[in-house]
Write a structure and sequence with these properties.
Elements: H1 53-66, H2 87-93, H3 96-99, H4 111-128, E1 132-134, H5 140-157, E2 165-169, H6 175-182, E3 186-190, H7 200-206, E4 211-216, H8 229-238, E5 242-246, H9 259-262, E6 266-268, E7 289-291, E8 303-307, E9 310-314, H10 331-367, E10 383-386, H11 388-391, H12 397-406, E11 413-414, E12 423-426, H13 434-453, H14 455-459, H15 472-477
Parallel strand pairs: 2-3, 2-4, 4-5, 5-6
Antiparallel strand pairs: 1-7, 6-7, 8-9, 10-12, 11-12
Helix pairs in contact: 2-10, 4-10, 5-6, 10-13
């Protein structure tokens, strides 16, 4: 057994062991009871672990070696675009002029940072086919909500207050109906047809005078391009609604197709996905929103503008939905995305799409004989399999995901989209080599064979991880979130 494979001992506390020393206070001690209500004050000292600095350093270093990330292994999470984060992005984000600026500095003293943001907006306008972009939203779902609030403001400004419903496909990301609800809309589901695309007849049925918008990603969550998108746009626009583009899958169409040319009125982008900002673990993210001309008055303020040779924030926006984030977006992620776009250039971004689509189709065809393929057609950046065949043998998709951990892989997205039984959604991205793809495919094929010949080994997985299979219901309902002295 290697050292890194040895089980971690989590209870390291020993009474009297000290891992720090603080200087004596050089300010008068304050009686907190004069500042805070009694109910907020502890009556006893907190029971914190007592650990030496060396022990705690070894503990967290060992934990870090067990953490899985893009830099340590293949991360095929469908719809998440977990692609490599180029290290030049990190270097540029750490330039003193970017890393050390303060959001409250006068605009005249941060012209370089403002120029970068303005230039990034212009690049995103070109990439998406929109007329204006805001960098304020902090993540994708935040961008969804921002876009929907602008759509709502647009309808209200036109006296069209009866538009209370947002249409979402049955394969939509879960954030779509959630964002619509938070923005004050009702959601209506439109069915997929036998090809995995939006059913046009059902769309005609659900769209009407109360439709505010259709939320859609293209290609969709099944990894399939919505071939009838222009007709869909005509259906929605003819009814007076707007089209919202969920940019989660933009990696599949970079420099090949633009949402603005497909008929979309609003688009959000995930800079921490398509444009290589690091993400996971709750952030950081960046979810810029682009809009067509008739929605520009409702952009969050302030709006970053160029006035002659100067860059400045425009607060005089009487129809704006207001500020949606303190200051102006997650600047560090914006720097990384800008660096990526400038490094890749138009031809590089086109190659991203070509290689992402090639990788996904290669993996799909290699895995097709061993798993059910719900939609046997050319996919884009991701594809879905079904574990129905394995389920008949007593092996669930969850078991397959757990077994992949024994091979050192982060599992793909499972049980999503909801309209595919025992769904397995795989997105390889463009940055993975053929050797990596083949090794993952070989592991999946081995698991499929195990399901037939030795299902117990899959059902009881994982076998090599520090902790075995958890009670996921208890972990969700009663998580242990704080240290408890033993």
């Amino acid at each position: 057994m290697h050292k890194e494979d040895q089980p971690l001992i989590f209870e390291l506390s020993t009474e009297g062991r000290i891992g720090y020393s603080l200087p004596e206070m050089d300010i008068p001690e304050i009686d907190l009871s004069e500042l805070l209500p009694k109910g907020y004050l502890r009556e006893e000292e907190p029971e914190l672990p007592e650990v030496s600095e060396l022990d705690i350093m070894r503990h967290y270093t060992a934990l870090s070696k067990r953490n899985h990330g893009v830099d340590s292994g293949f991360y095929p999470l469908g719809s998440c675009t977990m692609k490599y984060n180029p290290k030049i992005n990190e270097n540029v984000a750490r330039f003193n002029g970017f890393a050390h600026v303060h959001p409250l500095q006068d605009e005249s003293s941060v012209q370089g940072a403002l120029e970068l943001m303005y230039d990034l907006q212009e690049h995103l306008i070109e990439i998406t086919g929109m007329d204006e972009v805001t960098l304020q939203p902090a993540a994708g779902a935040h961008g969804e909500w921002t876009g929907l609030m602008m759509i709502r403001a647009y309808h209200e400004a036109n006296g069209d207050t009866k538009r209370t419903k947002v249409v979402v496909p049955d394969s939509a990301h879960g954030t779509n109906p959630a964002s619509a609800t938070v923005a004050g809309f009702e959601t209506v589901t439109v069915k997929s047809d036998e090809n995995g695309l939006v059913d046009l007849e059902d769309l005609r049925r659900v769209v009407g005078e109360d439709t505010a918008a259709l939320m859609l990603t293209n290609p969709n969550t099944l990894g399939l391009f919505e071939e009838n998108i222009l007709e869909m746009a005509e259906i929605v626009h003819s009814a007076g609604g707007k089209l919202y583009y969920d940019g989660a899958n933009l990696n599949a169409v970079l420099s090949k197709a633009r949402p603005g040319d497909m008929g979309f009125d609003v688009v959000h982008l995930n800079l921490h996905k398509t444009f290589t900002g690091p993400h996971g673990g709750g952030g950081p993210g960046s979810g810029p929103v682009g809009v067509k001309a008739d929605l520009i008055p409702y952009l969050p303020k302030p709006v970053l503008v160029k006035n002659g040779d100067q860059y400045e924030f425009d607060y005089d926006r009487p129809h704006s939905i207001g500020r949606v984030k303190p200051y102006y977006g997650n600047f560090g992620i914006n720097v990384r995305a800008y660096t990526y776009i400038r490094t890749m250039g138009p031809d590089g971004l086109k190659a991203v799409t070509e290689n992402a689509v090639l990788n996904a189709n290669y993996m799909m065809r290699r895995l097709e004989p061993f798993f059910d393929l719900p939609f046997d057609r050319h996919c884009k950046h991701e594809f879905v399999l079904s574990g129905k065949r394995q389920k008949k043998l007593g092996v669930r998709t969850l078991d397959i995901a757990k077994r992949l951990l024994d091979f050192g892989y982060h599992p793909p997205t499972i049980y999503f989209p909801l309209n595919v039984e025992e769904c397995i959604m795989i997105e390889p991205t463009e940055t993975e080599s053929k050797e990596t793809l083949d090794a993952f495919v070989d592991a999946m094929i081995q698991i499929a064979k195990e399901a037939e010949e030795n299902p117990e080994i899959v059902q009881e997985a994982p076998h090599t991880t520090v902790i075995g299979r958890l009670d996921e219901t208890m972990a969700a309902r009663k998580p242990v979130l704080r240290y408890q002295k033993q």
